[in-house]
Amino acid sequence: MIKNERQYKITRAQANRFSQALRELKREVAESSGIHPLLLKARKEAIQSQLADLEDDLREYEALRAGNFEFNQLKTVVGLPRLLIGARIAAGLSQRDLANRLGLKEQQIQRYEASDYASASLTRIRNVVAALGVDVDGS
What we know:
By secondary structure, the chain is mostly helical. It contains six helices and no strands. It has two domains: about 60 residues; about 60 residues, 434 Repressor (Amino-terminal Domain). The longest helix has 29 residues. It starts with a helix and ends in an 8-residue tail after the last helix.
């Protein structure tokens, strides 16, 4: 995700370089450069993949800059403690089970849940989500 104008400019420049590399590769193919066709195909697909990722990031940032954001999504943040507790229960885990998965004492999970995770860092919350079996990296 592009987070500021500086990153946007850098990403735009990278996308331009990948576009140029793709044009040069097409020229090489047209000139029958003597490179094995499978290698050329692999290079082309790699460049296209990188370029597509950069273009997706650029489009997302441009849309956000234009004000296209669903602010109702932020309601999830407010409801996150309840979601975490509910997910733990639905997963059939006790506070002790969750603590064991995280390498913590049961009392720490009790404190987190009693305070609606107010003292938990974002990293800790991500660890809790992962311990509940959710793929936090989206892969």
